[in-house]
Design brief:
With about 210 residues, the protein is of the alpha+beta class. The chain has a domain of about 60 residues: Head domain of nucleotide exchange factor GrpE (Nucleotide Exchange Factor Grpe, Chain A, domain 2), CATH 2.30.22. It is built from four helices and six strands, in the order αααββββββα. A three-stranded antiparallel sheet has the order 1-4-5. A three-stranded mixed sheet has the order 2-6-3, with no helix packed on it. Helix 1 packs antiparallel against helix 3. The longest helix is centred in the N-terminal third of the chain and has 93 residues. The protein starts with a helix and ends with a helix.
Length: about 210
């Protein structure tokens, strides 16, 4: 009887031990699964970080590469705003000689001419080139027609006058020129001979 009870206690302890071991094993398995999950998540975050770092590096390189272009065309915006002032100076410059003939102040005219020349030098130094369309075939990509004059066979389609100066900035058109062009007057088409009416034809035959 005593031995039987002792055996029962051993079995019970063994069952309890199995239960504890099973619970620990389950807990360890769950912890291992959670650890694997966190490891995978950390790897995902690390992969995203590497991609972000690569994207940023590509962005930095692109900005460095495009910086000269951004600076260049930032200047273009400023130059465009200065063009109306250039137009005024050019108009004044073109009237200098006539003003001198009319007795204008020579000092003022010299000062104005000097300002215009310095202004032109600044434009040239910044890469601005004036168009020279007069005497050349009209280019619709670089010029805008504001007037047409009667032309001949020799100058048909050529620019005869530049009303507002156009400019190139590098290889791009900063502002198109405004021009007049020559157009040869179209000759009237020959009129076809009309057949005489039947009655007129009979009268002519009778005569």
């Amino acid at each position: 009887m005593k031995n039987h009870k002792s055996e029962e206690k051993k079995v019970k302890k063994a069952e309890e031990l199995d239960c504890v071991c099973g619970a620990e094993a389950q807990a360890m398995e769950s912890a291992a699964g959670e650890l694997e999950k966190q490891k995978k998540q950390a790897e995902d975050y690390y992969g995203q970080l590497l991609r972000l770092q690569a994207d940023f590096e590509n962005y930095r390189k692109r900005v460095e590469k495009e910086k000269p272009e951004l600076i260049k065309y930032g200047k273009a915006d400023i130059l465009i705003r200065l063009l109306p002032l250039y137009d005024l100076l050019l108009s004044a410059h073109n009237h200098i000689n006539s003003a001198r003939d009319g007795g204008g102040s020579d000092d003022v005219l010299k000062g104005l001419e000097m300002i215009f020349k310095e202004f032109s030098k600044v434009f040239e130094a910044e890469g601005l080139r004036p168009m020279e369309p007069v005497g050349k075939p009209y280019d619709p990509m670089a010029s805008e027609i504001l007037g047409v004059v009667e032309g001949t066979d020799e100058n048909d389609g050529l620019v005869t006058e530049e009303l507002q100066k156009g400019f190139y900035y590098g290889e791009k058109i900063l502002r198109p020129a405004r021009v007049k062009i020559a157009r040869k007057k179209a000759e009237p088409a020959p009129q076809p001979e009309q057949e005489p009416e039947p009655e007129q034809a009979e009268d002519q035959q009778g005569e």
